[in-house]
Design a protein that fits this description.
This protein is an alpha+beta fold. The chain has helices spanning 47-62, 79-89, 108-114, 116-120, 137-146, 156-178, 260-263, 283-292, 299-312, and strands at 72-76, 98-103, 127-131, 149-153, 186-197, 202-214, 218-221, 227-237, 240-242, 244-246, 250-256, 276-279. α3 packs parallel to α5.
Length: 315
């Protein structure tokens, strides 16, 4: 055995004073947690009471683990480091849920624990935040195989930056996948002097009366038995292409049909400027909107969703 900080053989002492590093040799040390309090049990001490005192530190740590089981896994080198990281993740400016904790290097068993999030369908939380700890090669190989992300750093803020960038990437991917399912609510009024093409594709100028008109939105005409026209293929505002138009804006809009029935729809025959065009929402589209685009919706937009639910009989 060697002294921890200087070269040379270990020197035996009957007592040591602060601050000297020491090594402890004892059975069952694999169950010990780095950073917890260390007590010497004297003749008059209650061993069970001291155990409870030691476990108080761990109880405070475990209280920060999300009871729903949804969140990232966190590992640190010591109990103090783990506590600091958990406090940071639980702060109002961060708020990252934690489903599991551990102290020490990242091993294969830690990857398997993080992979539970993949199995539960919470792929974005199949992540290990490793603070000031090494990651074994076997763990990295398994993480790549199971699609578990491992972020490592010696500074808490660097870990946060890595995870935040990852979450933005995940959100962007989820939004892209849900773009056709999530239908933003809108009511559009055709401008009668701006009818550029009456049929396949229908190209008209419209005013956004309520809500948000987005490229990809399916449109219908409720006043004409709810006939479907197709999806918004493009929008132009002041002769510039845009993806979105908000209430009060006037835009040129092209509607592309998706089937033979929609191809037959014609302005002037099946509908005209007296009919408002409305986005066709459903329970599925509302759920997708809540899950992936809630931050793009305002209070007035949600009120419009409630209004359109009655129009389309959505429960």
């Amino acid at each position: 055995m060697k002294e921890m900080r200087v070269k040379g053989a270990l020197v035996e002492h009957k007592e040591v004073k602060a601050a000297i590093g020491v090594k402890i040799v004892a059975p069952n040390l694999e169950s010990a947690v780095a950073g917890t309090s260390l007590f010497v049990v004297g003749p008059e001490d209650d061993e069970e009471e001291l155990k409870e005192t030691v476990m108080e530190d761990m109880a405070d740590i475990f209280s920060k683990v999300d009871k729903s089981g949804e969140g990232v896994c966190v590992q640190a080198s010591t109990l103090g480091s783990l506590e600091a990281l958990l406090s940071f993740l639980d702060s109002d400016d961060v708020k990252i849920a934690v489903s599991g904790i551990n102290i020490g290097p990242v091993h294969k068993r830690d990857v398997l624990r993080a992979n539970v999030m993949n199995e539960k369908g919470y792929k974005k939380f199949a992540v290990i935040l490793a603070f000031d700890v090494p990651v074994s090669r076997e763990a990295r190989d398994m993480a790549a195989e199971y699609n578990v992300k491992i972020f490592t750093a010696d500074i808490i803020y660097h870990l946060f930056d890595q995870f935040t960038a990852y979450m933005k990437q995940i959100k962007s991917q989820e939004q892209e996948a849900a773009r056709l399912d999530a239908v933003f609510p809108c009511i559009l009024q055709i401008i009668p002097t701006c009818v550029f093409n009456k049929k396949d594709p229908i190209v008209v100028g419209v005013e956004v009366v309520e809500g948000i008109a987005k490229v990809g939105t399916p449109l219908c005409v409720p006043t004409k038995e709810g006939i479907d026209l197709g999806r918004i293929a493009s929008l132009e505002l002041n002769h510039k292409s845009v993806d979105t138009a908000h209430a009060g804006q006037s835009v040129a809009m092209k509607i592309e049909p998706e089937n033979a029935m929609e191809q037959s729809r014609m302005y002037g025959r099946h509908f005209d400027h007296n009919d408002q065009l409305v986005s066709r929402i459903s329970r599925e589209s509302i759920n997708a909107l809540k899950a992936h685009f809630a931050d793009e919706m305002g209070k007035d937009d949600w009120r419009l969703v409630v209004k359109l639910k009655k129009v389309f009989g959505v429960q």
